[in-house]
Design a protein that fits this description.
The protein is mostly helical. It has one domain: Tetracycline Repressor, domain 2, CATH 1.10.357. Helices cover 73% and strands 0% of the residues. Helix 3 crosses helix 4 and helix 8 runs antiparallel to helix 9.
């Protein structure tokens, strides 16, 4: 009986994290209320503290989850390409119209980056860890992997692609949004 209760609690925890990871990307940290997240997870607000000590603890786990989901998706796309095409595939996936439209399930760095300085230390720590992993992912798939300056190139590439996604989402002009994505993709991949 105890194992079944633990299993249900773990399943509920996962549903809360899934809902919270979507909510923070969709509405920002301040817009992700506990009541809304619990409702989206199909649970009552009162059950929240059975899973988390605080809202900040949930936000930290949600930031970690959102980052992990985004990184896993990018890794899958890169792995699906031939090794010499992995970097270009990674960039094309990240800098796509589809990614611009998928704020709720897309890159949390682009969705939440400007809010990070105002977050609790545990939220910032979780996001920072995932950002470092993103830089490493870009570096590992970069054509200059293992060369001097590769890490610096990965830093610039990551900052550029995140910035391009933020701007492409920010403007209300679809042509400008598409032009930004295309220009950055061409600049980063040389094609």
């Amino acid at each position: 009986m105890k194992k079944a209760q633990e299993s249900r609690k773990e399943a509920s925890h996962e549903r809360i994290l899934e809902a919270a990871a979507r909510a923070i990307r969709r509405s920002g940290y301040d817009g992700a209320g506990v009541a809304t997240i619990m409702n989206e997870a199909g649970l009552t607000h009162g059950g929240f503290y059975a899973h988390f000590d605080s809202r900040e603890a949930m936000l930290a786990e949600a930031a970690d989850r959102a980052g992990a989901e985004s990184l896993a998706a990018l890794e899958r796309f890169a792995a699906s390409a031939a090794p010499k095409e992995a970097f270009r595939t990674l960039m094309k996936t990240y800098l796509s119209k589809a990614h611009v439209a998928r704020t709720e399930t897309g890159c949390p760095v682009a969705a939440l980056g400007s809010e990070m300085p105002r977050q609790a230390p545990e939220v910032r720590r979780a996001a920072t860890r995932r950002i470092k992993e993103m830089i490493d992912l870009v570096g590992r798939h970069s054509p200059d992997w293992g060369q001097p300056g590769c890490h610096e190139h990965a830093l610039v590439t990551t900052a550029t692609m995140v910035g391009a996604l933020v701007l492409a989402r920010a403007v209300d002009d679809p042509k400008l949004s598409d032009s930004m994505l295309e220009a950055v993709l061409e600049n980063l991949t040389g094609a």
